[in-house]
Amino acid sequence: MATKLPKVPVVVVGMGWAGGIVASELTKAGIQVVGLERGKDRNTSDYAMGHDELRYQHREELMQDLSKETITHRNNEKMRALPMRDYGTFIVGDGVGGAGSHWNGQTYRFLPYDFEIKTLTDKKYGANKLKPEYTIQDWGMTYDEIEPYYDTFEKMAGISGETVELYGKRSNPYPTGPMLKTPIMNMFEKATKNLGYTPYIIPSGNLSESYENPDGISRAACQYCAYCENFGCEYGAKADPAVTVIPVAKKTGNLELRTHSNVIEILNDGSKASGVIYVDTITGEEFEQPADVVVVASYVFNNARLLLNSGLGKPYNSADGTGVIGKNYCYQVSSASSMMFFEDKEFNLYGGAGALGIEIPEFVGDNFDHSEVNFIHGAGIRVTQYGNRPIANNVVPKGTPSWGAEFKDQSIKYANSFFPVKSQGASMPYRYNYLDLDPTYKDAYGKPLLRMTFDYTEQDRELVKYMSKVTHKIAEEIGADIIDTNEEQGDFNVNKDTNTHNTGGVIMGADPETSALNSYLQMWDAENVFVVGASAFPHNSSFNPTGTLGALSYRAAEGIQKYIKEGGSLV
């Protein structure tokens, strides 16, 4: 029997970017918030001298414990889904800050095209551009409507960048200037300009200069130490909920942060929630936390799973395309890269930052004509310099034996003489790619695991074929001696694929029949439940999702305040 606690105005499930932003905005407005986080509390002191590659990157110090909670995966409905036992493609954060503590910091905006993708695609190419199995839909809001929230997020996080004309209009420039250019970035810039493209420095949550945000949070500039992804930043230079929004919420005195508190159920009567049940992960005790408003702000998988395990919203059914919870799960398509090796050039590849890089915008969204290709949207083509930490990097040309004397010789020869031209492609929703509850496997608390049914589609494979020609052309212009280009997209492998961006499953839109949430991320089926995060994206663009997640979180926080004052549906 769960111990029932006193009722609170708002309970927030998960204290990463989404939960941290919501908690900060509500507490600044004088609203009492209980924040529940299944992991431990963290701040910059926890990362002091934390350049331990084995501990953080390979033993996943900051990640969810897969022995207690994981997902199962199958490529299609004919396969048996099996649990993911090792972190390969996904790195699900755990603890205060969540994935916002271990992310790389790349902070793009999505395109105006993204938010009206169905309308604009049909208008330009006709309704039959994609097969009916691709369930693209508009987001229920436009770029112009979300732009002010992007601006708010960028000012809070101190995003470093430069304006790009081929993207949407901006109300303000980035609050800090772009990061430094390295020799490999200069090589990409020169080559792409020679080819007629317009390269720009990737917008970064790693500060290019010292900065104080509108909430009075001061942070130091990036040291280019190379320990970003999978690591917390000991300098506070990387935008992180644990050093930005959460301290602001704590300072108000209106946030009660409870760590080691794993929410396993949302209590509801089918149309309204009354609170949550959570487990103290240290003692095993169960608690009921009643609340007027429940904000589900965990990771993509956990948001969908918690709703499904709580019976909130109609589960998606791939057989007839009805239902919404679990619908439009999307990933990202990143196989069309060209690895370059140089015989007479060496680079300092061990310095870098998680968002240090340069990109061209000509092949994203609908910035190029899709009339003669069998896909929509596109990919960002880029060179990045994250910093090659010693244990994880050992790159050799194709055809090199995977062990033995030749492998060792080639490893040494090219240790500082390679880098890739990468692509990161958009992921379109597909009727048979979705999330539901696994009928066999359960977690440590007896709750069904989330099952992912996903594989790359014809759309994805055509995109890779096209973009591989672009990356190869740039690599040739750069002048590499050896170019190894991936020209084909293989089947999805949950233990090996290298992108980490998951979206969808609890999507937003203008129609309750085809979406779970309105534009404030308020559930159509339960007016006092807001589901905040990248789970709201109806598809995934070619850009990293955090900037859009942050903007939607500010929009949701505004909606929650409005709901507390007025009640009812906000649309």
Characterize the structure shown:
With 571 residues, the chain is of the alpha/beta class. The chain has a single domain, classed as FAD/NAD(P)-binding domain, CATH 3.50.50.60. The chain is 23% helix and 19% strand. It contains 12 helices and 22 strands. Strands 1, 2, 3, 9, 10, 11, 12 and 22 form an 8-stranded mixed β-sheet that branches. It has a 6-stranded antiparallel β-sheet with strand order 6-15-16-17-14-20. A 4-stranded mixed β-sheet has the order 5-4-19-18, with helices on one face. A hairpin with a 5-residue loop joins strand 18 and strand 19. The model has no long low-confidence stretch (mean pLDDT 95). One of its GO terms (molecular function) is oxidoreductase activity, acting on CH-OH group of donors. Pfam families: GMC_oxred_C (PF05199), GMC_oxred_N (PF00732).
